[in-house]
Structures are given as structure tokens and as C-alpha cells.
Amino acid sequence: MGSPVKSWWCMAVLLSLYLLVTGSGEEKETFIVQVEHEAMPSIFPTHRHWYESSLADTSSIIHTYQTVFHGFSARLSPAEAQKLQSLSHVISLIPEQVRHLHTTRSPHFLGLNTADRAGLLKETDFGSDLVIGVIDTGISPESQSFNDRDLGLPPPNWKGQCIAGEHFPSTSCNRKLIGARYFCAGYEATNGKMNNTLEYRSPRDSDGHGTHTASIAAGRYVYPASIMGYAKGMASGMAPKARLAVYKVCWNAGCYDSDILAAFDAAVADGVDVISLSVGGVVVPYHLDVIAVGAFGASEAGVFVSASAGNGGPGGLTVTNVAPWVTTVGAGTIDRDFPADVVLGNGKVIAGVSVYGGPGLTPGRMYPLVYAGSDGYSSSLCLEGSLEPNSVKGKIVVCDRGVNLRAQKGQVVKNAGGVGMILINGPFDGEGLVADCHVLPATSVGAAGGDVIRRYISLGSQLRSPPTATIIFKGTRVGIRPAPKVASFSARGPNPESGEILKPDVIAPGLNILAAWPTTVPPSALPSDRRRSEFNILSGTSMACPHVSGLAALLKAAHPDWTPAAIRSALVTTAYTLDISGGGPLLDESTNNVSSVFDYGAGHVLPDKAMDPGLIYDISTYDYVDFLCNSNYSAHSIRVITRMAAADCSGAKRAGHAANLNYPSLSAVFHQSPNGHPNNISTHFIRTVTNVGDPNSVYKVTISPPPATHVTVQPTTLAFRRLGQKLNFLVRLQTLAVQLSPGTSTVKTGSISWSDAKHTVTSPLLLTIHQPL
């Protein structure tokens, strides 16, 4: 699972291949161009003037960057890109990626109770002096979740702005929403001027995603809150008094790297303390990943970066945003759901979920039931125009999940005259259920329940006994057990780029989360939907990420001197891996089997424990450089990521291997020799812990070794005499090689815990044995 050799030569080859593919024509593409910042000749008044001197068309420049990155983005022809690459002051050209969004009760579920006299919220004044930067689709500023009642002036180090735009006057900002910017130049460079009838050229949110994530991170207390009568209660974000700065980068066509990097650059210069990013794309080496590059600059400036793991689960190797300086967040369930069960004509009941709030089906009446994939029907997916009205009118239609939006399938059924819809998971989705705000009576059921429904329909057709069904909507149910589970859609490890770094780091609530919503956007996000609501229920690692962003703001408020790595360490080493009823290990929602560290990382976040973790694993910028050296990144590639002119890898290579990064989890990857001869496999980890608990404390180690593995820790006791004291320990691991088929791997997991009777500091320990092809 180790990284391939990464070098300037590799970068040049990639660019050359790109230019070869695009041909010799003049079709332009966007590149992010890194330059040697200090090399600007004195004759130029600004760096932009210098950049323009290198281009034939000065209007091709999209953004300039000067905080987390030095350089500019521009639309370039293949010839222009080749010319720029040859200039001595140009360090790197990175082709632009287009990214996509990873799409009331969670504070209570996390134990953030306002009644506690000494909890994380009270200890930090609800995060009032911290600023969370949300890079997303913008914000709906009039939402009550963003009111500034009883808030003082913004923090004195705040330098940001409130940029006015379409339907977003400068008065949209207040003492809660203290900054708002939008970045669309990269989007428009590729797609042309945006359609102002569909999108706002301003920080205003025309999608809803950004409003939702911002309120999860830092929404104020709002009561009553609900969506169509569901999830009634008090809504609040993780850090209700934290200030918000929004950076709109996502548009109808996606989120463009050049705009994302501009948002990182602005957010750090503005003075945010935390960046929340629920956006992701394809995993590439870090020096070609603009999010990784921007996040490194932010981390170096002391800004904590939380990013969504992605929604590619439950399959493995799907996790995104995997750089070790980013805290990567997967999604878990909470103890609330919205049951909407299917009752079949034969009396069988199939469990489902929904937040449909319109006119219901007639109580006690059974409706004809039809599967859209049966013979004579053109699409089981209920795509636009695929249903024959004469075949579905007055019936409940069964549709398969996939391709088009879930709520959109309901609109297709409704347009064709159907009275209801049952949405069935495919085998890949398993039993994970997502509640949607449908436009007609509809529910979602798992793959197993879907098979029962399809068999019933098929048998009824054979026996000439027309199948019937109805849907019973049961509202909101609280106290679900077991909880949490790993949400079925949550992206899973192992880390595709750095097997020595466990990703995701943690999971947080991400399924069926109630949060603020623009009243200009239908809750189903369908243009035909005329309903409006101030709140909506969404699911995704997009929702999990801002939970951790808000918690990071609270931890930063409690410990102003903590680095981003220290905050991540506190969250990781105090996370839990048992359901809240204590009945057993975390389960995988898609299968209801026991989940693994590749599903949940270190476990589910536990805020109050994270406030007082006892020990932390801290990481410096130079530690990350050593990690990159030991991951076989070249000096040039490291310069692209870190902006360090000369990265010396000689010392790092002598110091050990990539798994020696002082990460709060421990992961080793072994590649067996192709001949497959069994022999002992061994490695070691060096870690440094910093005392942030009691000044005089003694920690003793507890080892839970992976199966058939011998693990030792030296020393077995760590005695601290003051706060801030650092002590080292060494972990040795030895196991036997195993017989594996070529191209396959096996994973063994365990843990190491340090305890002083008051604190327990736990790190996952895993080893992966891979048999090459």
C-alpha cells in the first residue's frame, strides 16, 4: 500500500502525457502554477504583474495565491503550459480537478448538554472567540441559526470581509456571520458566465448544502425546529457561539480546484481557526492534490482542517482527503430514525424510512403494487420518461436505487400518475437506509427487504393474484439501539496513498441530520417541489465533517496553544468503538456485521473526553517533511507541498520509515517477497507523547496485540513531572508471514493504551500484509 516514487521527473512525465493527450491544438485547460515567490524581480510592483509578464494573454489568469500557496491559476493551451514549465521560477504545474460535495439531536447524542456545569460547551463559552471557515456552497444568512443575539465584537485578529453580491447585501453579515466570500473565476473559466436564474453570483447559497454544514458546525440554538413535522426539538450546532466565515466555491457544475485553493488562501489570511471542507475528489499524490497542498499551508499556519471522507462506502479503498495533516471524518448513525414501513398484501411488514410530510395514503387501503423493472416496464431505476402512465397510474411503484437522485425518482413516479414509491437498495448499499424528503408518499428499504418485495410481486403475477401494499408513516423514533453504527455510505480505508496513515481518522454523526436550510430551496432540491422549510434532513460524510469542525473549535477555545495535530490526537485517542448501550462493538450499517478500523478509524468522537485527553501526539511541519521523505516523495514534490525551498531527506531516511510519523494511530504495511516463503515480519514505531493532563502523573501501558502477533512497548511506564513534558516510547511488532494469493492482503488489528487511572489514551494498532502480483 506504500506510495510510488514521486519525483519531479514523474511530474514532468505526467504533464507531458497530459499535453500529448490534449494534442497540439489550442484548447485551453486550467492549471495551478506554483512559482518561487522570492524570485520576483524588483521592477514589478506586484506578483500578479510578474505572473502576467510570463503569459501572452494576461486575461487568462484566474486567481493569484499568496498565503497557503505561492502562484496563480490560469487557462493555458498545451503550448503555453509547456512554455511556463520551462521557466526557472516556475516550480510546478498542477492540472485542475473538479471536486464534488460529499453529500437537532446530534449534540445530545455526543453528550454536549447545555445543562452541564462543567462540560465542553460551558468551559469554552460555546466557542465564542473562535472562527470556523466553511468552504462549501455559501450560506442563507437570514436563517435563525445564524443570528448574532448576545454576541460581542468579532475576535480582534479577524481580517476578513463580507463581499456583497447578488441577493447578498453587505448587511447580510453580522456578529455571527462575520465573513463571506465567493470564488467563481475557476468555474467560469471552464463553463462561461453562470446562469443567474439558477445560481447566485454571491455568497448566497442556492443549493442548501453550505447552509446545512455551516449550521451543524456553529448554528445557534433554535426552537422549535423540524422538517415537515419530523425531528421536532431544539436545533444547534457543535459550537453555537463560534463565528462563521463562509467561502463559496461550489456551483452547479462542481467545485473547481483553482477556486478551492483561493478559498484556502483567503481563509488563512482572514484569520480563521478551523476550516471545514465537505468536498472531495479522486485520490492522487499529495503534490498533485490542491486540497492537500492548501491544507498543508493552513495547518502550518495553525489552522485545523477537517474534511469529509467521502460517500463511496461500503466498499474499501474509497476514502478521500487522506493527507496526514487533514483530519478525515467518516459518518456514523445516531439513535434516531424515521420509520415508514411497507405492509404487503400477504401481511408481511418491511422496515423502511422516510420524512415524507405531505398528504398520505388512505388509512386501511391497500394499493396495487408494481415493480418498474418487471417485464413490460422500461426502467427499474425510474429514470425520467421511463415509466408508462397507463401501467403505474394509481399504483405504488417499486424503484431501484441508483443513477438519478432518490427524490427525483419519486417525482418521476408522481408525474406518471403513481400514488407512492418504494425505493430499494442495491446489494452494494446493503441495509443502510437514508431518509429523504420525498414529493409523494415514499419510503426506502434495504436490499434484503427489497428482495422480499420483488419476490412477492413476481409470485402474485404468477398466481394471477394482484400484489398490493401500503406505506405506514410512523414519524420520529428516538432511542434506537444499537447506535452508533458506521453509515453504509461512509467511505472506507485503507488509505490509497499512504497505507501507514489510518484513514478515516474518526467518525461523527452523518446520517439523517437535521440542520438549517434556505427557504428559497425546496427540501427535496427538485425545482417542481413547492414546499419550503427552514430546516432539512440530509445524510453524508458532508454532515459528519462539520460536527468535527465545531468540536475542533471548542477544543481550540479550551486549549489555545494546541496545534491542529494536538486537536486531532485528542479526538482520536478518546474515540470509542462500542455502541452507546455498551452492548458490543460498532456495527456496519450496510451488513449489521462488526465493523473495522478501516470503517471508523479510531472510533466515534467523544467530545467531553477529548477536552481532557491526558496525553497528545503532536506533529510539527518538519515531522511531515520527514514523513514525505520516507514515503519516497522527491525534494521537488515536497517543495510543491510545503513551499520549502530545500527539503533535505538524508536525515529523515536515517531516522526510520513513514510509519514513524508521530500519528495517534499506528499502522504498518508489509510487502511479502514474490516467492512467498514464510518468515518473520517485524517493524517498530517510535512515538512521542506530551503531557496535557495532571502535572505529576504515571501512565502504564496496556497492549491488545493483533492476532498471532507479538508486540512489546518500551518503556512500559511513563512518569511525568510537569505539564508539557514530552516522553518517548518504542513499539516493536513481530508476526509470521502468511500464504496469500498474488494481489491480495490480510489485515490484523489491535491497540495500545496508556492509562494513569484518570485518563485512557488509546491508539489503534494495525498491520497489513500484502502479497504483490
> Strand count, sense and closure of the main sheet?
8 strands, mixed
Helix/sheet category: alpha/beta
Any idea of the CATH class of the domain at 100-315 and 483-491 and 501-557?
Alpha Beta
Instruction: Give the number of DSSP strands.
Output: 40
CATH superfamily of the domain at 100-315 and 483-491 and 501-557, by name, is Peptidase S8/S53 domain
Overall 3D shape? globular
Q: Roughly how many Å apart are the termini?
A: 13 Å
Give the radius of gyration.
27 Å
The chain-level mean pLDDT equals 91
User: Unreliable runs, pLDDT <50, ≥5 residues?
Assistant: 1-24
Number of DSSP helices?
A: 19
What fraction strand?
25-35%
The assigned CATH architecture of the domain at 100-315 and 483-491 and 501-557 is: 3-Layer(aba) Sandwich
Order of strands in the sheet with the most strands? 19-18-25-21-22-23-24-20
CATH topology annotation of the domain at 100-315 and 483-491 and 501-557: Rossmann fold
The helix content, as a percent range, equals 10-25%
